[in-house]
Every structure is written in C-alpha cells, then in structure tokens.
Specification:
The structure holds 2 protein chains of 2 kinds. By secondary structure, chain A is α/β, with parallel strands linked by helices. In chain A, strands 2-1-3-4 form a 4-stranded parallel sheet, sandwiched between helices. Chain A has helices at residues 5-22, 31-41, 64-71, 87-94, 137-154, 159-185, 202-208, 226-239, 253-262, 285-300; strands at residues 24-30, 45-51, 75-78, 99-102, 193-195, 211-213, 244-247, 266-270. In chain A, α9 (253-262) links the parallel β7 (244-247) and β8 (266-270). By secondary structure, chain B is an all-alpha fold. Chain B has a single domain (3-289), classed as ABC transporter involved in vitamin B12 uptake, BtuC (Orthogonal Bundle), CATH 1.10.3470.10. The longest helix of chain B has 30 residues, at 139-168. Classes of the chains: A alpha/beta, B mainly alpha. Chains A and B meet through α8 and α9 of A and α3, α13 and α14 of B.
Amino acid sequence: MKLPLWLTGSLACLALAAPAADKLPVVASFSILGDLVSQVGGDKVEVRTLVGPDGDAHVYQPSPRDGKTLAGARLLVTNGLGFEGWMERLITASRYRGARVVASDKIQAEQMAEDEGHEHGHGHDHGKLDPHAWQDPARVQQYVANIADGLAAADPANATYYRQRAVQYRQTLQQLDSWAQQQFASVPSAKRRVITSHDAFGYLGRHFGITFLAPQGMNTEAEASAKAVGQLIQQAKREGIRAIFVENISNPRLLEQISRETGAKPGGRLYSDALSRPDGPAASYEAMMRYNIATLVAGMKQN
Amino acid sequence: MTPYELLWQPFADFAFMRHALVGCLALALGCAPIGLFLVLRRMSLVGDAMSHAILPGAAIAFIVYGLSLTAMSIGGLIAGLVVVLAAGLVTRATRLKEDASFAAFYLVSLASGVLLVSKWGSNVDLMHILFGTVLAVDDTALAFLAMVASATLLVLAGIYRALVVESFDPEFLQSMGGRGAWAHFAFLILVVLNLVAGFQALGTLMAVGLMMLPAASARLWAKELPALLGIALLIALLAAYVGLLLSYHADLPSGPCIILTAGIAYFISLAAGTRGGMLRSWLGRAHLEA
C-alpha cells in the first residue's frame, strides 16, 4: 500500500511525538542543572544532560549526538550568565525550536572578582558576570522556581505536580542552607579563608562570609601568571591559610605546587561546576553542597 | 625598584619560580641543539607535527592510569616513536617525501587522540589535564627534564659527525652506507623525547617554542656549527629567564611570556642579524650602490 506523502509525513511526526506523551523530554546544559530539573520534574520528565559528571562546561565541545538530543527535546534549561558559550551555536546547528529556560533568570547576579590573589574586590565594574550562582543555595531557590515555571509552561497538564515538587525541593534547599550556616558558624570568621584553583565559589563565599582566593580567574581556560601565584603564596604564608582545595574539573598541578610551597596539605577535592559520577560523593546537587561544605569546614579548621 | 628586586628577588622568594627557571634551563639544554639540527635539515615544522603525534599515547595512558606523569610520558613516547618509524618506513619504501608522510601520520595520530579522549576520557579540557604549566614544575618533573637533557646531549655527541654530514650533504652519507639512516632515526627519537619531556612538565607551547625560535634566530647570527649551537642555547636560556621575570612583574601568563620573549629575539635577529639580517643586507646594498 502506498500512502500519500503528507500522510507518511504526519505519521512519522506522530511516531516521534509518541514517547513525549509519556514523559516531557528536557535537556539541561550541565550535570548540576540536570539534577535540579529532575528534582522538580520527578517522573514526569526525562532529563538529558549535555556536559556530564566531572565535565567542564567552560570549554565543552558539543558533539553531533548533543545536537540530536537537543533537537528531540521540548524544553532546554541553561544556566545563562555567559556560562555556556557554546550553546547558541549548538541551538542553531540543531535547529532547536522548543521552549527555553534560563535558570539564573531574575537572580541578583554578581560581578566577577577581577583581582585574584587579593581580597575579592568590590565595586569593580568589568561588565563580566559570575555564572557560578548555583553555589549559593538561596539563589538556587530562584533556579528552582524558574525551572518549575518552564516545566509548567511546556507541560500544562502536569503544572500542579511540578509546582508541588518545587515547593518541596525549596524546603530541602532551606534546610541545606541553615545546616550550612551552622557548619560555617563553627569556624571563627578570621579563619574563613580558602585557596582553590579557579574562581568558582564567589557566590558561596558571599553568602556564607568566606574569602576564596584563586591563582586562575573564573575561567578554567586562562593560564595563571607568575605574579598571581607569587602573591597567593605570600598571602597564604602571611595569613596562615592552610585550607587548599583542588576541584574536580581542573588540573591539580598548580595547586599542588602552591601547597608544597606554603607547607599546607591539599584538603581534598571540591565539586564546583559539575557533579561527581553516581557512585561518587557528589552525585546530586544537595549531596554536592553537603560534601563541599563539610570538606571546606574541615579544611578551614586547619587554618 | 632596585636591580636586585627586578632581576633576582622573585627567584629568591619563591621555590616555584626557581623550579620553573631550572626546568626551562634543562629543557633549553636539550631542545636548542635539537631545534638547530631541525632547522639545518629543513625539518622546522616536524617538531610541531610530532608534538601532535604524541597525543594519543598520552591520552591512552591518561585514560588507563589517570594523571600520572610517568605513564603519560611513556605513552607519548611510544606514540611518537610509532609515528617516527612509520613515517621513516614510508619514506624509504614509497615515493612520498618525509614531510608528506610525517604530515599524514601525525594527522592520523592526532585524530585518534582526540577520538580516544572524547570517547573514554571525561569532558575536562584535554590540554589542561595532559599538559603541565611552567609554574607547576615539581621535583619529579625536574628530574625527568634533567634526565632527558643529559640523554639528549650524550646521544647528540655520539651521532654528531654523522648528523652534521647528513645535514649538509645527505647524498654523500647515503652513499657511505646505512649509518646516516641510523643517525637520522636516533635524532628523531631525541626530538620525540624532548617534546614529551617539555609537554608533560611545562606545557604545550614551551617545548616546540624553545626548540624552534632560538634555532631560527641563531641562523641569522652565525655560520659555524659550534657558534650556532652556542647562540641558540644562549637565546633559549635568556628567553626563559626574561620571560619568567616578565610574567612575574607584569602579571602575565608565563608560558606565552617565555615564548614571546624568544619571538622578540627572533625579530631582532631578523632585523639586525649579521648573517642575512634585513638591516645588514639593506646596508650592504646601499654600500654597493654608493
């Protein structure tokens, strides 16, 4: 039997749309957002993540499969604030026409601290926003609200379900926040100084009153200068900072060098821009925050 | 700022600066003569090509053993040697010239490296994990660099005569039998070895940059081999020292600073070099016309 062309075409469309009737196909740009979306979406959505666990979204190169994944999705969730520089090209290439949620929408974004190696500068206006807003659980409240709005708009039939789950998860976030406040309160404020490899913890630092120092700027692509490394070492020696941490996404060699020179022992690995693999200590956003905070507190007590 | 503060204090204050300087010096000792022979043999781009050929070996080692300097160096070395051998065989067995077969093999090698890492490695940027930075040279890396520099100088001393003859008159040495081929092969192994050492310890730019720029500059100042070697080495050492100081005082990334300093030496040589520099040949012409 030969079907008319328009009929085969619409049948094919139906066949493609069929799985979407069960679960809403959503694409999240990186692992942390992916977890937030599944927390809100529950079993009504199917989340796929472009940059997976332990991956670096700053320097990611999308593959054709990502294009295919995106083209089959009905909602795309990105962080925004210039975090996924490669996303626009991927959207063009995959001809994605679905809805889009920028998770950091409506949050109060901070400028990037420019003078690494010094105190984090205030009032500098370099026009560059710090994208790592998920490190602050209070701001993630807004992330979750944005994601719930996006899911409800893309799948109105389940809107109440999404909003309920969002409310629940926001309570989890509040508990996380107050737990974190308690943890940090056990460290005297003079000791709340930490060295990490790139400036990913600006929001965490502001929210909990911790000073983060880094030899590299916010971008993992940048190379450190000898001056920045020298100043960092001097400051660490002068102020007795022994809390030095490597991140899961960057090269640990420079940090190892700094800890050798200051006589500090690297205090473990922090998860800044990506979750760990499912069997790791930071498989979800909440687990990641709890793990990071416990690690930071233990390290700062050595200061 | 006193001259002491300007010229030496950063090294006195910080162990990482001393490590970086000594690492660069060791690398320069091996790389400068290697680069010079590459220039003399009209193989200037082979260093660059080989640096890509190393990738799949280092990548496999990284995937299997994680971030281990030893494993990644051995892996890179093996991949480099395979490319050298394959390119050499093709040159001898077919009508393809050496540069063409190198180009072909390094591209295949580079592509397989990228494929391996995207398939089995994590998404972390390859270059940042596989390659070191000048500011993070540790004792192991220093020992490795020193070993490679010593081995390079010893082997070069052994094959010096054959290498010199072949560089200037390949036909003659080929007519003398197989020794030229062995010298050539040993030389290519040294190229790979130095690139691996430089990459692992100091970063992508450093090895090829310290190899080629001082060598190309030296050609504009001297003709005799001993003088050429001395000048290339001197430029490499100066570039490392001045580049590190620049990176420290001007707050700029270190690797590019060192290579750009070598680049400035090259431009100065282009302009003022006593052997074929532009200024000299322009003056010479003016003198003839007058």
